[in-house]
C-alpha cells in the first residue's frame, strides 16, 4: 500500500487531479490517494503574503505527509520541490509536466522569459480572458484539444477559483523558482514525466504520449508509467 498526495498547478484547483486520483485508486484499491488544494485554491484560505514560501511551508507542514509520495503537476511540482528542502523529504517526489524550471535558461529549454512576461501583463489587463486562453494553451498538446479544454472548463466551473493575489504570486513563482539542483541532489527519489507534446514543459527527460493535460485526458497512461517507474522503487519486493 502506498500513500499519494496530488497537487495541482497554476490557476487550476485540485479537481484537475481527480481523474488521475481515480485511475490510481481503481488500479490500487488499497492505496491512499488524495488531491490537495494549495492555499488560495478551492476552499483553502489564501496566505497573508502568497509569495512567502516560508508561510507556505508552515501551512503545508500540517497537510503534506512525509510517508507519502508527493506528485506535483506544473507549478505544483516547483512548489513541492521547494517544500522538500523546507519540510524534509517525502517517500518520493513526482514532477508531472514540470522539468524543474519553467522558464528557459542556458542549456535548459523552457518558456521564454519574454513570453511569460507578456502573459503576465496580459493577465493583469484581462484576467478572465487570460485564464481562458491559458486553458486553451494547456490543452493544445492533446489529441483532441478542444474537447480536453471544454471538459476541464466544465469541471473548473463547479469549484471556487483562486483569488487574484494568489494567481499573481503564482506567475512570479513560475518566473523565478528553480528546483533543478534538487533533482541532482535529492534527499528522496525523484521522477519526472512530461507529455511528448506538452507545450509548457519543453525539457522532457521522460515522456508518454500527450500534452500538459495528460493526467486529465489519459490518466491510465500516467498510472502505467507510475507503476513501471515509481512503485518498484518504493514498494519492497
TrEMBL record:
Gene3D superfamilies given in the database record: alpha/beta hydrolase (3.40.50.1820)
Classification via InterPro entries = AB_hydrolase_1, AB_hydrolase_fold
**What name does the UniProt record give this protein?**
AB hydrolase-1 domain-containing protein
Q: Which spans are transmembrane here?
A: none
Tell me which residues make up the AB hydrolase-1 domain: 8-224
Supply the source organism for this entry.
Answer: Terasakiispira papahanaumokuakeensis
Per the UniProt record, the lineage of the source organism begins with: Bacteria, Pseudomonadati, Pseudomonadota, Gammaproteobacteria, Oceanospirillales
**SUPFAM superfamilies noted in UniProt:** alpha/beta-Hydrolases
Amino acid at each position: 500500500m502506498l500513500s499519494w498526495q496530488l497537487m495541482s498547478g497554476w490557476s487550476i484547483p485540485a479537481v484537475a487531479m481527480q481523474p488521475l486520483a481515480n485511475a490510481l485508486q481503481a488500479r490500487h484499491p488499497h492505496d491512499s490517494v488524495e488531491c490537495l488544494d494549495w492555499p488560495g485554491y478551492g476552499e483553502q484560505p489564501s496566505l497573508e503574503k502568497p509569495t512567502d514560501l516560508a508561510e507556505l511551508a508552515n501551512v503545508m507542514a500540517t497537510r503534506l505527509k512525509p510517508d507519502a509520495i508527493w506528485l506535483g503537476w506544473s507549478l505544483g511540482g516547483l512548489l513541492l520541490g521547494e517544500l522538500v528542502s523546507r519540510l524534509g523529504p517525502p517517500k518520493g517526489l513526482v514532477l508531472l509536466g514540470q522539468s524543474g524550471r519553467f522558464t528557459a535558461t542556458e542549456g535548459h529549454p523552457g518558456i521564454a522569459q519574454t513570453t511569460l512576461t507578456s502573459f503576465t501583463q496580459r493577465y493583469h489587463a484581462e484576467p478572465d480572458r487570460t485564464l481562458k486562453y491559458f486553458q486553451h494553451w494547456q490543452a493544445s498538446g492533446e489529441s483532441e484539444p478542444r474537447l480536453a479544454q471544454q471538459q476541464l472548463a466544465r469541471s473548473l466551473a463547479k469549484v471556487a477559483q483562486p483569488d487574484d493575489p494568489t494567481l499573481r504570486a503564482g506567475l512570479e513563482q513560475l518566473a523565478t523558482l528553480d528546483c533543478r539542483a534538487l533533482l541532482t541532489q535529492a534527499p528522496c527519489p525523484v521522477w519526472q514525466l512530461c507529455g511528448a507534446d506538452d507545450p509548457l514543459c519543453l525539457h522532457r527527460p521522460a515522456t508518454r504520449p500527450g500534452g500538459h493535460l495528460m493526467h486529465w485526458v489519459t490518466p491510465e497512461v500516467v498510472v502505467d508509467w507510475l507503476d513501471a517507474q515509481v512503485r518498484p522503487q518504493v514498494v519492497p519486493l
